[in-house]
Amino acid sequence: MDARHKAEWRVLGKSVRGASHVRTGLPNQDAIGWLPESGSGPPLLLAIADGHGSAQHFRSAQGAQLAVTTAMTALQSLLDGQAEIANPEAIQHAAEAEVPQPGPGGRLPGGALRTIKRAAEERVPQRLVQAWLAAVAAHVAAHPFTDAEWARLVDQKGPEARRAVEEHPVLAYGTTLLTVLVTEAFILYLQLGDGDMLTVSEHGEVTRPLCHDERLMANETTSLCLPQAWNDFRVGFQELTAQPPPLILLSTDGYANSFADEAGFLQVGSDLLAMLRADGLEQVQASLEQWLTETSNVGSGDDITLGIISRVEEERVDASLPPEVSPASASASHADPQDDGDAEKNACRTLSGRCEPSQRSTSGSRSASPGCNGDASRPAAWLSPRWR
Fold this sequence. Notes:
- By secondary structure, the protein is of the alpha+beta class.
- It has one domain: 4-Layer Sandwich (Phosphatase 2c, domain 1), CATH 3.60.40.10.
- Helices cover 33% and strands 19% of the residues.
- It has 10 helices and 14 strands.
- A 7-stranded antiparallel sheet has the order 3-1-12-11-7-8-14. Strands 2-4-5-6-10 form a 5-stranded antiparallel sheet, with helices on one face. Strands 9-13 form a two-stranded parallel sheet.
- A hairpin with a 4-residue loop joins β7 and β8 (205-208).
- The radius of gyration is 21 Å and the shape is globular.
- It starts with 7 loop residues before the first strand and ends in a 25-residue tail after the last strand.
- Mean pLDDT is 77; it is low at 83-109, 315-343 and 348-388.
């Protein structure tokens, strides 16, 4: 990697309780975590999870937290087992040591990167799921299901639902999982279930690093609680041979569901990049809770979690988004703000093969938001839907 692209990466994020959960007394069923705790790398790990919340998944808040913890542990193990990933010069040396092969390109990629990519695609999802299942089993052993939990389940879903959980206790903990690992040599993206991953280029172009899973429809989602869940992970591996993206976003589906359309949600990526450049990480972190709470209040009503990974360079070579650009406001949401917008999710029954990574790109146009003055302390209409 070119020396001018070496940079510190920083992570920030927040998870807020959804407006409908506040009204009904339910807890926040999302979770977020990162390593190292300082939030500075590389290497840097970020994970978020969204517990399903339906009656049968009555411990999904704990399931989400366990998912975040086990994801960070699994990816830390990958780091510990491949020490060279923190040393791009060692990878370059490995690449130069390869024997040239016939055909375009001349040389194979470095052996170290090939090994890591193969492990990420073939072994990490399975180890992660197995670690989560073990953590759930330990939690059930330490905290057996209570009579009150069984009574609520039977009252809401009937005795068959109880029998299903008795046979498969992991159903009670059902959750999605999104995680990113950033090193100097590569970025690894892993996703199971709904939610969103976005990358933003220096020019503000917003891209999804993973393909869409066609099975994620309405309130159906793939889940850690389903059999052989590792087959449902979407995996992306990005070798950093060129300039890395300056911004990576992870969010649970309560965020995107608060916008009227895909374009309005994707606009957040380029707008947030401009805000970070204008006002800095600390100002954005200080405002996240207010912004996300407002979004849930006027949007989906669901819990919302947003994780942000930002590349911080001493000198930005091509600052395409000038600080004076004001972030754009989102349009009205699909959800009625008075409705309980966090419709319960259920683990979908289909178990088809893994969806291979691909990219779909959307360039959001940048327009000034009414009333935006470039001050990060203002109400962030650009990060939440504005009702008209």
